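Reopening: structure tokens for the zinc ion complex, inputs below.
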Amino acid sequence: MKHLIVSLHDYHPGSHAAIKEQIETLNIWGVKNVSILVVPHYHHQKATKDSASSLAYLGERQAANDDLVVHGYYHDRVGQGSGSFFWTKLYTANEAEFLDLSDGEVRHRLTRALTLWEEQGWKPEGFIAPAWLMPEEQDVILKRMNFTYTTRLKYFQNLRNLQKTETQSLCYSTRAKWRRDVSLRWNKWLFARLLKTKDVIRLSLHPNDLKFEPIKLQIQDIVETALTEGYQPLTYAAYAKQ
Ligand SMILES: [Zn+2]
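Re-run output (same inputs, fresh job):
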């Protein structure tokens, strides 16, 4: 069986409209269920729990079998120092929240995040660190807190049976024109390689990705080609149960 897993990164009240539109577009392209990466308190702005419309929408998506993934807590590095220049400034725009937190702080932020899931009656299955950056040694904390999976750029990690599925995610960087151009060339090459070599294709989208026409066209082509080639769409949570 071949699988296509689409994940939508960075859901919070400020990205609600963009992600709702992505979900509707993906639906038209044939992807009915996705993993939505929810940030409890994105960049210390309006918290997800304080937005009635966000809570209602996420509740609907959970009821429709989407997978609501815990995606960091703040998704920024306020109060954490600059860290390594490459990871905090070049690779991300100061978003690598879980890059270098202590074990105690990881547990603390995850516990606070899970309060939201509990209060809303959502089922927490996975945790994915902002920009996938968290030391592998801390996966044991996720396992102890009953998360069933995590992912990084290059693999999916089942935390129950400890099986690792190596398959690099397709992912776009859109915050400058040169990054968009490089992303288009890179993802074209990577997708062709994945089709030849992998049973699982992962597509990770950020809220603005479909706003750039050439990127939107490429993503549509990736989704439609994958479906034509027999990849079945499903969420990470469903894949973890396979
Ligand atoms: Zn993110």
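The CA atoms of residues 11 and 38 lie 5 Å apart. Residues 9-10, 71, 75, 130 surround zinc ion (CB under 6 Å). Marking as resolved unless the reporter disagrees.
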